Amino acid sequence: MNNEFEPKIVAFVCNWCTYAGADLTGTSRIKYASNVKIVRFPCTGRIDFMLLLKAFANGSDGIIVSGCHPNDCHYTSGNFHARRRWILFRSLLDFMGIDVNRIRFAWVSAAEGAKWADIVNDTVSTIREMGPYTEYRKAASFLAENEVELAKEMEVPQ
């Protein structure tokens, strides 16, 4: 029996490029780790990075955010918006004590199925070496267990 840790990874991907690239990976029968669950968005510019924190709270050990290459966005500049948000989000991650290496930001076009497989395999390998992510789960369980008490503390008297 294999007791090796298998990470849970969520991928937030662009519909037009990365999702199509992941589809090409499958249709080309390129093998890659099955640890990744894909969430498809119209564009990486539409991804609210609070969803990434929510993914950690729901048990994800790592995250991939991937979309069209710069200047190749279906919506003209969505990937530039995502890149700017990512730069700011990294500061928030540092502040919260979340290792930035648990999140991978990449550009993958619809024609780069092999690149998608490499990114997935590399991310799974990196997260496997880092081990399970438990710190954010502790905070999430504390919030869930004390939701009523915390809500009372947050109430504003009328």
Could you please describe the fold and organization of this structure?
This is Coenzyme F420-reducing hydrogenase, delta subunit. GO terms for molecular function: iron-sulfur cluster binding; metal ion binding; oxidoreductase activity. It comes from Dysgonomonas macrotermitis. Pfam families: FlpD (PF02662). Keywords: Iron, Iron-sulfur, Metal-binding, Oxidoreductase. It contains six helices and four strands, in the order E-H-E-H-E-H-E-H-H-H. Helix 1 packs across helix 4. The mean pLDDT is 89. Strand 1, helix 1 and strand 2 form a beta-alpha-beta unit. 34% of the residues are buried. The chain has a four-stranded parallel sheet, with helices on both faces. It has a single domain, classed as Rossmann fold (3-Layer(aba) Sandwich), CATH 3.40.50. The protein is α/β, with parallel strands linked by helices.
When the domains are counted, the total is 1
Class derived from helix and strand content: alpha/beta
The CATH architecture can be given as 3-Layer(aba) Sandwich
**Gyration radius, rounded:** 17 Å
Strand order of the largest sheet: 2-1-3-4
Largest sheet: 4 strands, parallel
Helix-strand topology string: EHEHEHEHHH
Quote the average pLDDT. 89
| Low-confidence sequence ranges | none
Query: What's the CATH topology label?
Result: Rossmann fold
Strand content: 5-15%
Helical content (DSSP H or I, runs of 4+)? 40-55%
| Number of beta-strand segments | 4
What is the CATH domain class? Answer: Alpha Beta
Q: What's the number of helices?
A: 6
**Which descriptor suits the 3D outline?**
globular
For the termini, the CA-CA separation is 60 Å
